[in-house]
Structures are given as structure tokens and as C-alpha cells.
Amino acid sequence: MTQRTLSIIKPDAVQRNLQGAILKMIQDSGMKIVAMKMLQLSKDEARGFYAVHQDKPFFDSLTDYMSSGPIVVSILEGENCIEKYRDIMGATNPQNAQEGTIRKAYALDIEKNSVHGSDAPDTAEAEMAYFFSRMEMVG
Ligand code: UDP
Ligand code: MG
């Protein structure tokens, strides 16, 4: 099934100039980029994006970090791409991430883990709509 998912290259990775390297890993896997932009979230926008985690102990630190610098947000399209991109990202904690994954290669720690990917069709829809209008989805 062809799906779409939301990808974020997080502040730690943009700050280290890793956008190109990470997008290459995404593109080499065959997924197509159908929307993309660079922006910086406000603290409130980061809180809104991660609202599902608002009761977690890491929420305040996470939203500080996610609003600390520019991010690159994109929509990826491909066969089974929600799960496929999660596989390419690797585990949330880079210490548990498999060789060859983005987080294994680039994540700094469990918080500054370089990339985000939607985890299911309903969250993918909500997250794509959080960042992009229909007009910006060009694929
Ligand atoms: N996070 C954190 N501490 C934790 C778990 C998660 O700082 O103990 C951060 C991390 O940046 C992670 C994000 O919160 O990517 C969202 O957590 P989630 O469990 O949804 O992980 P993901 O879906 O990004 O793998
Ligand atoms: Mg998640």
C-alpha cells in the first residue's frame, strides 16, 4: 500500500549540517519526498506537535530542544513507508539502534536523536496537516 509519512530532521542534526546525509539515506531507500521545508518551531508549536507526550517527564526538555533551532520537515511517500521509515530511523534510544540506521549513525542521545517519523496512519495524517497545506504537497 502506498502511504505518506511525516519526517523531521531535528535541531541537533540540522545544527551539525547533516540534512544532506540524512536525506540521502531516505532517498537511497527509494522513498520519494513530496513536500519539504525548513523552519523553527516556537515552544508552543513544539508543545502542540508533541501533545501526546505532555504528561511525560521528558516533555519540557523535549519541547525546549525541538524549538532550539531550525528543523527540516518533509513528507515521504512510498510502499508501506510509515513502517519503512521507522525502520530506517532506528530505535528511539540510539544505544539500541541497529547498524545502518539514521539514529545509529547520527543521534547524540535518547532526546537529541536526529529524526522524527510518524508511527501510524492516523498520526501521520495529523502530523502532515500540522505542517503542510494541500497546496504544499507537490508529489
Ligand atoms: N524522548 C526523550 N526521552 C525519552 C523518550 C523520548 O527525550 O525517554 C524524546 C525523543 O526525542 C523522541 C521523542 O521524545 O524521539 C518522542 O518520543 P517517542 O517515544 O514518540 O519516540 P520516537 O517515536 O521519536 O522514536
Ligand atoms: Mg513517536
Provide structural commentary.
The protein has 139 residues and is an alpha+beta fold. The chain has a single domain, classed as 2-Layer Sandwich (Alpha-Beta Plaits). The chain has seven helices and four strands; from the N terminus they run βααβααβααβα. Strands 2-3-1-4 form a four-stranded antiparallel beta sheet, with helices on both faces. α3 packs across α4. The longest helix has 11 residues, at 121-131. The protein is globular. The model has no long low-confidence stretch (mean pLDDT 98). The structure holds uridine-5'-diphosphate and magnesium ion. Residues 53, 58, 62, 92, 110-111, 113, 116, 119 line the site of uridine-5'-diphosphate.
List the helices and strands and how they pair.
Elements (H helix, E strand, L loop, with lengths): L1 E8 L1 H5 L3 H10 L3 E8 L3 H7 L9 H8 L4 E9 L1 H9 L12 H5 L8 E3 L3 H11 L8
Antiparallel strand pairs: 1-3, 1-4, 2-3
Helix pairs in contact: 3-4
Uridine-5'-diphosphate binds next to loops.
Features:
single chain; 139 residues; alpha+beta; Alpha-Beta Plaits; 4-stranded antiparallel β-sheet; 40% helix; globular; binds uridine-5'-diphosphate; binds magnesium ion
